[in-house]
Amino acid sequence: MMSARPTMKDVAALAGVGLKTVSRVVNGEGSVSPDTTERVNAAIAKLGFRRNEGARLLRQGRTASIGLVLEDVADPFSSALTRAVEDIARQHDSLVFAGSSAEDGVRERELTLAFCARRVDGLIIVPAGATHRYLVPEITAGTPAVFVDRPPVDIDADTVLVDNEGGARMAVDHLIAHGHRRIGFLGDAPTIFTATARLAGYRASLEAAGLPYDESLTSLAPPTAEAIRHAVERVLGGPDPATALFCGNNRVTVEVLRVLAGRPNQPALVGFDDFELADVLRPGITVVAQDPAEMGRTAAEMLFARLSGDRQGRAKTVRLPTRLIPRGSGEMPIATGIGT
Amino acid sequence: MMSARPTMKDVAALAGVGLKTVSRVVNGEGSVSPDTTERVNAAIAKLGFRRNEGARLLRQGRTASIGLVLEDVADPFSSALTRAVEDIARQHDSLVFAGSSAEDGVRERELTLAFCARRVDGLIIVPAGATHRYLVPEITAGTPAVFVDRPPVDIDADTVLVDNEGGARMAVDHLIAHGHRRIGFLGDAPTIFTATARLAGYRASLEAAGLPYDESLTSLAPPTAEAIRHAVERVLGGPDPATALFCGNNRVTVEVLRVLAGRPNQPALVGFDDFELADVLRPGITVVAQDPAEMGRTAAEMLFARLSGDRQGRAKTVRLPTRLIPRGSGEMPIATGIGT
DNA sequence: CTGAAAGCGCTTACAG
DNA sequence: CTGAAAGCGCTTACAG
Fold this sequence. Notes:
Chain A is an alpha/beta fold. Helices cover 41% and strands 16% of the residues of chain A. In chain A, helix 1 crosses helix 2 and helix 5 (76-91) packs parallel to helix 12 (292-307). The radius of gyration of chain A is 27 Å and the shape is elongated.
């Protein structure tokens, strides 16, 4: 029972052997006599020795850890992704540093560089910033990065995206197929890659159906309660209102539902991103689902592939599919109330 | 542009100064001539040098990182807690290793000891295991641990809990106040501390009201869809069924709502734990809310307080309050259907 | 089968 | 104002 942590040196001294012999026993390298092994193990047990992995890894030139930069750890999308990354990392005996950029480019950079300063073996980033040039020296120095959900800006790197445009198009096609001609789009801030990609899918769907694109039916803004309330009122008000809404992401959908709960007649609705309880609400909420766990898994596998070999190959982009899940809200015809 | 990372030695060589001088400049220690400082900075810039924090911290005997052991990073409770821990850690220039025990004692132990092997400065643990004796050597060696949501077993350590019994009692009192006499309790597995504490609160409330405790109205089991379906059918079936349900946690509540969605008449319902969309459902779901972010914040603050001084003081337990949020489902009198 | 020396990339304690 | 030496706790490369 020492108060400080015993080291290999302490073990060696107690066992009366050289440092290297302790190292051999700890690493199970064999070629140590049974007698010596026993003495070393006894000393280890007596002192409660546990090897300092950080010191070992410093010598080996890696840290067996990766850095995961999220928008917000607390977000369901981020946390599902985190769990998937964790599970892959565990398979590679690697630990995960996780942190939130809070959708702030400066904070993303600070956090990412803090991870690099700890010499994480690699990075998985849900980017928020307007440039990732700051990563060039790190990547060049041998710290690979994989981007998820949004592509990096100004640099080339492995990326995992979903088919945002195709997913959005599927959502709007679905509403059109159910008779809607006036369809609103409520998206996140236009600085966010996925928001504009989904807007593009929305427009493509309208165009394919020969429907006009009417800017007064769209809104691209951070999904605060206030902003969403105004947007919903604008899009559902006026002389020729929308009869259906396409919500650009999870947080938009939830805020929209909150606003709609207080209104008499309800538009049809499809949301991008699935969410817990979407099936319990009445009507069930039709969504275009992406799979954050699959995104995390894919990104982590790409990263560990880089770490164990293919470090110089060209950057790859994987685009995962989305899936339409009809639950009721997206299948309502024009002018039918949602029913309380 | 070297392919490997430049070190202080490389910088010193290029600048034509000693290693220590580079260290001084990097640390802004002053007492370096302007001329020398400039040469060193030029070399740093030219080489793209970035100090290896891991090496620095090894020498300093700490890692400026903490380990966070959760039940499941992807769970909303865990992820809200994680974000709060992250924010406090950032204030202390510390990074966070996060990982999931998956409610498995063995995995909890492996993960926790992996963090200790990296010599994290401290631990925050949502415990799953049946004993934490394995932590004694680590704590003795100077790695403090703070437990959250559930107390440690077999050891003494700082702990952050909520008033589970009081919260449960508040929930059941509320249902009783609305006229209910037959109230079901659907809780998680009895091995989970919070499940039995909430059962105790349920029983205390019944007893205070002079109502009998009827085991046929209760269920304590992991909240799989299957188990919950059976439990709901049992508690709401039979000759003298429950008219109200108290759900022991988030996941139970969600599964119960899923089951109830397919049934004709609906019991009153109060859930322990708040959740997104509880206010959007019709009726709104009345809950006893705890504050996972506050729990994380409190735990992190206790940990950093230990790290910056009070290492030997007696273990403290903080018990945070819960809060009843009436939204409709908990205020329904007997025999009134929930509406669609 | 065993160990002394050098090194991972830094800082600390000393000496000038 | 500056730097050589020793050290953080391990492993690597060598030598016996």
